[in-house]
Amino acid sequence: MENGKLFTVKIKNLTKKFGSSVAPVIAIDNLSLNIEKGKITGLIGADGAGKTTLLRTIIGLLLPNEGEINVLGFNPVTEKDKLLEGYTKDGKIHLPLGYMPQKFGLYEDLTVIENLRLYADLKGVAHDFDKMLEFTTLAPFQDRLAGALSGGMKQKLGLACTLLGNPEFLLLDEPSVGVDPISRRDLMKMVREMINPETTVLWSTAYLDEAHSFDTAVVLDKGKVIYEGKPHDLAPIPQEFENKVIGSGTVLDTARLKYELGNHLNVDSRSVHAFIIGEHGDSEIAAWSSANVSGIPLNKFCEMRGHFNHDEAMKRIAENVKNSAYEIIEKKKATYYGVAMAVKRICEAIVRDEKSILPISSLMKGDFGIEGISLSMPAIVGKDGVECLVPIQLNEEEISKLQQSAQTLKNTLSQNEV
């Protein structure tokens, strides 16, 4: 105990190197850190900052080159076996450690419930699976193969397996990477509500916006701690941008997309649900993955209407939407009439507190790995501005294009010293 605090982990002058002794790569550089018991500590850093190396060294999967580590009173280098031994408390078997790596070893040819039972058997623990399934919202999918789950559901199942045995110290290596915003919040809620008050959690992430979910934030850069303290002091939310509609975004482009799809399918465009996201212009993205007509997936509805060349049609429609602005400029020398209508629509949603879902431009805070830039994404818009973003489904190609759109904007701002 130090200054009235108990620590689950004590690290002093830790160094971990990879490669040859002639030109080693220093992954952890003379790092000292204490992790308080019963708290959720966020380990924040970019790719290559040393987060995974630190977690693996803490639990003894990697051996340090220099320094001292104490975990739950044991040295993970010389006493690793003691960190793996279960013990009985209150009639239940408890495990000292629970570790969820970035790619958790789910058996994709087993169902959800079969994975849980397997991991319980491997750990030698008993568990109330019904309660676990209900809390994680996996109960309706317990007979579904793990390989058929969405990314967010797989992470929930991986976390559920990690929580088996009520570990004293839970290490989660980027559990929220690649999942939608709602699933990210669900994962944190699971951890908060399923652990006991004495459980210590070390959660690594590359998302700075997640800092506000932690009790303590630790920022790692090139193997060194560059910040340790209260999350709010690290990343205060800019009040001037929080929940604000920054621009009209792609409201106009989305209206054009729905119009084009309505003509293509010969249906009322008001029944078409699809969005243009990213940013207006050459880098805009048609979010085909989430497009539907009255709840029917777009491709299925197209086939119902006798259209089967999906790729060709989607490319043509997206190009028409993108080029329509240029055609209007060429003919009318301006597009301010259309832009004015888009702004009018946004103002109506705010003044009337409609809670309408509109693809406006607002500050990104880690969704799809993007932060610190304003992009056009579907959001619930009402009297207080942006209530929240709507977590639409995007495939890997669409996410990549969205990230490229964000980078294009950042580069432009940087070049103009904005």
Features:
6-stranded mixed beta sheet, globular, 418 residues, 19 strands, Rossmann fold, 3-stranded antiparallel beta sheet, 2 domains, single chain, L-2-Hydroxyisocaproate Dehydrogenase, Chain A, domain 2, alpha+beta
How helical, in percent, are the residues?
A: 25-40%
Class from secondary-structure proportions:
alpha+beta
What strand line-up does the widest sheet have?
A: 7-8-9-3-10-11
pLDDT averaged residue by residue: 86
Distinct helical segment count: 12
Beta-strand fraction estimate? 25-35%
Unreliable residue stretches: none
Number of domains: 2
Count of β-strands: 19
For the record, the CATH class of the largest domain is Alpha Beta
Distance between the termini: 48 Å
CATH superfamily of the largest domain: P-loop containing nucleotide triphosphate hydrolases
CATH fold naming of the largest domain: Rossmann fold
Shape: globular
Task: Tell me what the CATH architecture of the largest domain is.
Answer: 3-Layer(aba) Sandwich
**Could you tell me the radius of gyration in angstroms?**
25 Å
What composes the largest sheet? 6 strands, mixed
Structural notes for this entry:
The protein is built from twelve helices and 19 strands. The protein has helices spanning 51-58, 80-84, 112-123, 129-135, 151-163, 181-194, 231-234, 251-265, 298-304, 310-332, 336-351, 396-415, and strands at residues 7-18, 25-36, 40-44, 66-71, 87-89, 92-94, 97-100, 169-173, 200-205, 216-221, 224-229, 272-273, 276-277, 285-286, 292-293, 296-297, 356-365, 371-382, 385-389. The model has no long low-confidence stretch (mean pLDDT 86). It has 418 residues and is α+β, with helices and mostly antiparallel strands. A six-stranded mixed beta sheet has the order 7-8-9-3-10-11, with helices on both faces. Strands 2-1-4 form a three-stranded antiparallel beta sheet, covered by helices on one side. A three-stranded antiparallel beta sheet has the order 12-15-16.
